[in-house]
Amino acid sequence: MAIGPADRFPAGLIGATFAVMAYRATLGSTSWTFETLADLMAKASPPRSGDALAGIAATSAQHSIAAKTALAELPLKTFLTQALVPYETDEVTRLILDGHDAAAFAPIASLTVGEFRDWLLSELATPAALARLAPGVTPEMAAAVSKLMRNQDLILAASKCKVTTRFRNTIGLPGTMAVRLQPNHPTDDPAGITASILDGLLYGCGDAVIGINPASDSLNVLGDLTRLMDDLIRRFEIPTQSCVLTHVTTAIQLIERGAPVDLVFQSIAGTQAANASFGMTLDLLREGLDAGRSLGRGTVGDNVMYFETGQGSALSAGAHHGVDQQTLEARAYGVARAFEPLLVNSVVGFIGPEYLYDGKQIIRAGLEDHFCGKLLGAPLGVDVCYTNHAEADQDDMDSLLTLLATAGVTFVMGVPGADDVMLNYQSTSFHDALYVRELLGLKRAPEFEAWLERARIVGADGRLAPRAAGHPLLTAGAGG
Amino acid sequence: MSAPVTPDPWTALRRHTPARIALGRTGSSLPTSEVLGFALAHVQARDAVHAPFAAEATAAAIEALGPQTVIVDSAAPDRATYLRRPDLGRTLSDAGRAAVVARTRGACDLAIVIADGLSSTAVHAHAAPLVEALLPAVEEAGWRLAPVVVARQARVALGDVVGELLGARLVILLVGERPGLSSPDSLGAYITFAPKVGRSDAERNCVSNIRAEGLSYPAAAFKLAWHAREALRLGLTGVALKDESDTAARLEPMNRAVGLSPS
């Protein structure tokens, strides 16, 4: 078997024209050519419907293995000289390349993508070494190496990456997993939302954030929801934070109106054009970060941003530049980490079967997203989820949740009964969180766990305490 | 031995939300009844997506109300392709295009397209009753109505193709919405002025959640007629057409109660 890229260096360094580049691999008697780096990355991606929809997927399993074979031989530093999305026209590319830390990159600077996989799984890649490395890894490098990794590699390497963030509690400590309490209601009814929040707290959930997806975009409604959560957190002295998941410009307006905003939310993607379709620029994120921090509401830290991402969002916006969706997703984490977020959430199965068709694709993507995010130093959680038109069910979610929990996922969602009655999809439930805690011994954020024990919601072992009808949360709650 | 299920003493909170709260537990896990209830709801939602679309029966129900109909297929040959290729669901098959062209009779004011979308269950349940509720407003306004197009494996933007071929000033597309676990049969309606290929979603207005537990047929028909009148008056739909039908809807029953019904 003869393998190897036709040209290991940008053509411009050794030839007359910069644009002529090709990568080749020969498997048996068949030779494969990949015209561009983006083409090589796309063909090396494990199968997913979104890349097929974009017309960039490998045409056969052998085609994909050939691409992986060529990709394994590619020097990592190629990604520092060849941009997949043009530097001149894309501010995400500029953020990634201008912010690259060459000193941090030094330990792996001479490696190929295949050698990088070996390094990540070796004894050399300790948690401390990985933390030092993170600023030297670009999203494209993370995506490239993930394409050569099996699911167990993604789990093991991610489990060695520790990312800790703080606002009113400490998220991401070893041996912990946090939960976003997601109390959505179809009409933003305050009593209905409060009922779901109480249900979640009494099931020991809500340390990552209490985060509402509002149905309304009315500033008055959003302000009311923000105050509703702030009242509850203050009245019961809960060491957690709240967020109404609305556009960053809306959060800035709420802050200007004096609303008690803890976390500033924004959906982000991996290209400037996709972000533009969200009405978002990096400057706007900077404004949101400054506005959130100006309130000084964090007690143990000032990680004030909450980002959501998902494979396929760039293609959905017609802004993918011929780059595969997993690589673009990793670029979104490159955006996220620049703003020191408390939480980054890949809504992996939410975007639909045209991007991730079935349980197998959703599971694979969830593990890739978590690995890439953690390798880049982002506090990655995953919305382990699916829609009813995807070929997936609760068994698939059980599998992904269990795998991610073993991989050290920062947080998952907590939706009552796993059924989001506002967004019409299935995520993970409060019970699901209890299940992985019991199975793997995972604790909550320490400040939150201590509060649950003080409030007699859990015992000293972290398990739910016997139910008392007269619990203060219920007697003082939404007129229960 | 008593059952090990621990109930939650806050079931009273359930009256505030359709969310699945106060489910109780056995150890860390859901009680058996909840596991089965969830599985049933999921299967119902899946059936809504995958149940074959009874296009002929839907067309017959519409013809019984008066309008003529045409049944067409999108360019997506089957459900599996439809789910993976949204672009094909926005395009007519060659035969479908020919069928629509054959029924074109000069300009018209309104085209109605009924698309299976992601829930044929929703279309079976609600499309014909909604059209029935809407027809009096069409007659009252004197709008020239094109044959109603019933489209299989179709997405919202197929209405642009059909509306343009029919020479319609306005298209209303009824579509089965993405089914939720608690709402497998929700119908949506999209209103697009001057339909043509390439219209963006920002150029449409939407009336959603049409189902027994959501928006009723008369209320939905009222909103649609309001949007249609405003769209034809202003010459646009989309973000520039703000939904103020709530104000009109509040006034109308009041007027009717005091004998001032506009009709």
What would a concise description of this structure say?
With 480 residues, chain A is α/β, with parallel strands linked by helices. Chain A is 44% helix and 10% strand. Chain B has a six-stranded mixed beta sheet with strand order 1-3-2-4-5-6, with helices on both faces.
Strand content range of chain B? 15-25%
| Terminal CA distance of chain B | 68 Å
Supply the number of helical segments of chain B. 9
Question: Helical region count of chain A?
Answer: 23
Q: How much helix, percentage-wise, in residues of chain B?
A: 40-55%
Instruction: Give helix and strand order of chain B, one letter per element, not per position.
Output: HHEHHHEHEHEEEHH
Structural class of chain A: alpha/beta
Q: The biggest beta sheet of chain A, please?
A: 4 strands, parallel
Low-confidence stretches of chain B: 253-263
For the sheet with most strands of chain B, the description reads:
6 strands, mixed
- The SS-based structural class of chain B is alpha/beta
Q: Major sheet of chain B: order of its strands?
A: 1-3-2-4-5-6
Query: So what's the oligomer here?
Result: heterodimer
Strand content of chain A: 5-15%
Distance between the termini of chain A: 70 Å
The general outline of chain A is globular
Most residues in contact, chain pair and counts: A-B, 51 and 43 residues
- Low-confidence region ranges of chain A: 1-20
> How much is the average pLDDT of chain A?
93
Characteristics of this structure?
heterodimer, A: 480 residues, alpha/beta, four-stranded parallel sheet, 14 strands, 10% strand, globular, disordered N terminus, B: 263 residues, six-stranded mixed sheet, disordered C terminus
What order do the helices and strands come in, and which of them pair?
The complex is a heterodimer of chains A (480) and B (263).
Chain A: H1 11-14, E1 23-27, E2 30-34, H2 37-44, H3 49-53, H4 61-72, H5 78-81, H6 91-98, H7 102-105, H8 113-121, H9 127-133, H10 139-147, H11 151-159, E3 165-166, E4 170-171, E5 178-181, H12 190-202, E6 209-212, H13 219-235, E7 242-244, H14 248-256, E8 264-267, H15 272-277, H16 282-294, E9 305-309, H17 313-316, H18 325-337, E10 343-346, H19 359-375, E11 380-382, H20 394-407, E12 411-414, E13 419-420, E14 425-426, H21 430-440, H22 446-454, H23 472-475
Parallel strand pairs in A: 5-6, 5-12, 6-7, 8-9, 9-10, 10-11
Antiparallel strand pairs in A: 1-2, 3-4, 13-14
Helix pairs in contact in A: 2-4, 6-18, 8-10, 10-18, 10-19, 11-19, 11-20, 14-16, 18-19, 19-20
Chain B: H1 32-50, H2 55-63, E1 69-73, H3 79-84, H4 86-89, H5 94-102, E2 108-115, H6 120-141, E3 148-152, H7 158-166, E4 168-176, E5 187-193, E6 204-210, H8 217-234, H9 245-257
Parallel strand pairs in B: 1-3, 2-3, 2-4
Antiparallel strand pairs in B: 4-5, 5-6
Helix pairs in contact in B: 2-6, 6-8, 8-9
